[in-house]
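# nightly structure sweep
# worker-07 picked up a monomer target from the shared queue
# config: single-sequence mode, recycle default, output format = structure tokens
# input follows
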Amino acid sequence: MINFLKYTWLYVLISAIVIGSGLFSIFRWGYTYSIDFVGGTNLEYKFAKKISESEAKSIFKFDKIELVDLNIKDQTLMVRTKAIDEKKEQQLNKDLEKKFGKLTVLRSETVGATLGQETVIKTIIASLLGVVAILLYMSFAFKGVNAAFAAILAAIHDLMVIFGSYSLMSHFFGAQMDSLFVTAILTSMSLSVHDTIVVFDKIREYKGEEGGTIEYFANKALTETMVRSLNNSMTIIFMLLALVLLGGVTIKFFAATLLIGSITGTYSSPFIATPIFVWLEKRRKK
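# output follows
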């Protein structure tokens, strides 16, 4: 049996460094938000010839359209602007076609700021409902709130790691916070709690079968479930790694977020949730 709890100080140090780096990024650089959250218009055009970035920007300025982002790749123009109506978009298309020749509209989508705010509110509500559901279920399943609190704190740990990592990806790689990020967050929470329940269930099983301290039960449970958890997580991690390296641009950051969530969820179940649970159990018995 391996004494995993002996190195709790190391787990705290690793988490502090990772979360600290993420918090620094959040407060220093923040995020780049997609139109799902702040509203706006995404436009993508295909031209018959190469176009100039400066000339393209001048047309948007002439039409009094506020640019948020503009990228040109080969003969494709991708822009994000403040929300514009259909009439203004038609005028823009005419001006672009007049300047650069025939164009093909590949994408045109507009999201109002009100809908963006509604998305944020729904995201917060969904996360809170998930936390409450986990608390109620685990309190009932383990006949106490200590296991539930430990699982929730580990899930919060995972969320802080993911939010911090995404801020770093947003700053260095241009990742935009969108609805796919919300999906990845909620999925990562479920993965984290799933592994935690497996470990806690083993601890409960040993407590009912033999005598000993809570540290003994926890170390025995971690020793017996570690290989199973790693094998289960590695299959997910390899798949997500392939998507990050070979997948399309639209899902790359979604897969990267799930990858980070899977890694931190695998780490937090034995090294964050279990030490917290042991600490809470020892306090309860004092």
